[in-house]
What we know:
Elements: H1 2-8, H2 14-57, H3 66-93, H4 95-124
Amino acid sequence: MQQQLAAMHGMQNYEDLEVDEIGMGVIRARQYGILLAACIMIPILLVLVIVCEVTRRKGHACGIPVQIWVECVFIFYLVYFLLTLNELWIIRCSRNAAILYGLALVCFLILAYSALTIYGYVIYFSDDNNC
């Protein structure tokens, strides 16, 4: 039975089939994780960006652009989730490229949040801060 199952999938023995099925299980779990995170986080982040934009346009200012900074944080997180959706297509076409894409995406996110943190410190300790 095991040899027939392996032969159906073009493999030499059953052990190869188990490893391939485990790998596919991990890939399916990653795909479902991406879809679930996108379905939950994208609407939440869109609402937060809209709320920040409406609040910023009402004119509640304290000398530094705090609302713009908070809005940028949410926008970067939203862009991260939108770019993560592209990983679904990359997984389908080339599984090896998905790892490199994921690492590049995380590096981009770390650099973006590092720049936002530095900018946040600059505006917080500026002389214009009267909050």
